[in-house]
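Protocol step 4 of 6: structure prediction from sequence.
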Amino acid sequence: MPVIELKIPNLGESISNVTFSKWLKPDGSIVAMDEPLCEIETEKANQELSADSAGKLIWVAKEGEDLEIGALFAKIDTDAGEPGGSDSQSSSAAKESAPEKKEAPAEKPAAEPVATEPNYASGAPSPAAAKILAEADIKPSEVNGTGRDGRITKEDALKAVDNKSNSPAPAAPEKENAPASPAAPATSFSREERRERLSRMRRTIAKRLVSAKNNTAMLTTFNEVDMSAVMALREKYQEAFVKKYGIKLGFMSIFAKACAKVLLEMPEVNAFIDGDDIIYHEYADISIAISTPTGLVVPPVRNVESLRFSDVELAIKELSGKAREGRLTLEEMSGGTFTITNGGIFGSLMSTPIINEPQSAILGMHAIKERPVAVDGEVKIRPMMYLALSYDHRVIDGATSVTFLVKVKNLIEDPVTLLLDV
């Protein structure tokens, strides 16, 4: 058949609908096989769909439309644009029917330069490049695209951001005897409103958070941890750690390793309910909450109990980079037996994190603040952090949750025991 249909592919067992984000190629354009055509948004990540064949693209889906798996989103006329296709045949027929032309006179005017029309892809950023440029407040027209047909690639966007950050700020022109600028008028009260449709990821986040509140017996227990020993450890060995592994030793890997150790000692915190059964895990896949422009994602670092601190840090760095660029795969987003979220990087002093279903517990880290505390009968100033453990009371008893948090606290306050596994 000269026209083939393109349908939304199966993206995983848990995904039944997608949102058609935007077209990357104009309607009626000639596309090559495997060339990206559009971008779709799932509840976990964004993904590009490519052409199954070369030919003329015919739009079917509309941007912003919700589509089910298997729904038709485009067609490709495979005859159009090919060497033996209908376009070339009609062109050949036109040549055959055209009358013969007499030779031009000897004198020929100077040839004028032929203006080439810009390709429709020229200056168009890829999805990853568009996000990078938007975050840096750079217009695509200011970037030189080196990709296919002049398309702006991720590397082009990163180079433009780097050039912008390194370029000096323009000096303000000096004005002689410039009159004092009048005071800016007071801003008038605004009554304007703006309506935007929730993204599929935001809709999924909302649905899951409400489900966690409604379908679990969620409680939160708190404690505080003295970060003096961990901070001293990082200060003493940070330079050697970076020199050997090429990455800094952060707080997240230390907390992840501490939680992994205690999770294996207390398997009920590492379990979740499946119908009338409880599934226990003999490994610790710890999901790390990562904030992105489109919402919060929680990709897991797998088998944390078996990884080195450097492995955990490198895994978190890779997942964070992919998450913020929208490149996380569905496999990288799935799974996890326990979650850690760090609101302290935004300045949060205390919070009650919501369980990441179907998991049964989540640890909330918070900002480190110097506070007076009693140490051996004396008042001392120590860097303190509040910890919060939200848990599903159907699986985890109150005593179990408190014990888990105390064990994590003890490992953080004496990290040598964590390193020696005692």
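Step 5 (inspection) to follow. The first helix runs from residue 86 to 97.
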